[in-house]
Amino acid sequence: MNALWLLTFFGTMALSLWAAARVKIAYTRGSQVPASSGLSGAEAASRILDAAGIRDVEIVEQDGLLGDHYDPMHRRLVLSSENFHGHSAAALGVAAHECGHAIQHKIAYAPLQWRMASVGATTFASQIVTWLPLLGFFSGFGGFHSQTYLMIMVAGWGVIMLFNLITLPVEFDASRRALQILPKMKFISPGTELTTVEKVLKAAAWTYVAAFITSLLYLLWHLLPLLSGRRND
Asked: How many CB atoms within 10 Å of residue 11?
């Protein structure tokens, strides 16, 4: 089981690092492709939200590369400085993607609603799978292969896996909306600009796929000993 744990740990770490590196490479290349509209990410986001009839979402700037996100609780669309001020195809692609989430929120897109409703449980589950192994290591709580320990870890990773699964359609749909909106509103031109945006968003999607695969593998790693033990009873 130790060999399997090492394979799971290093395999998922390599997958996550590969996905993150792919995003950075795609984004760096996309940042060198200027958008023919001359708009900044913030300007494009403002026009997209206005066209969608969304006027209660604030567009704010935040330091840090690729920290862009839509905050449904505070009705804020947060763009990194590079994308807030940037005039590249990558900047507009990221901004439009986040607008896609705001549009999802407006129309009560079901997967987004499910993800919002599960944030609290997922945060709690993340704390459990992080701290329980440490507690077990230093205190010997139940042993790493005890039924109680494994059941708690299965529950925790199960919640995280379901959250990551729900996240996939949310992210894919936001990217689909971005790829439709940008050329329709003539913010980017077909051809190189549109292809660039597509590559950036596809690369970003792999980070969510990697997160789902990671949580699924850790769920299975803790679940299999439980199932094996029951078969042996």
From this structure: 13
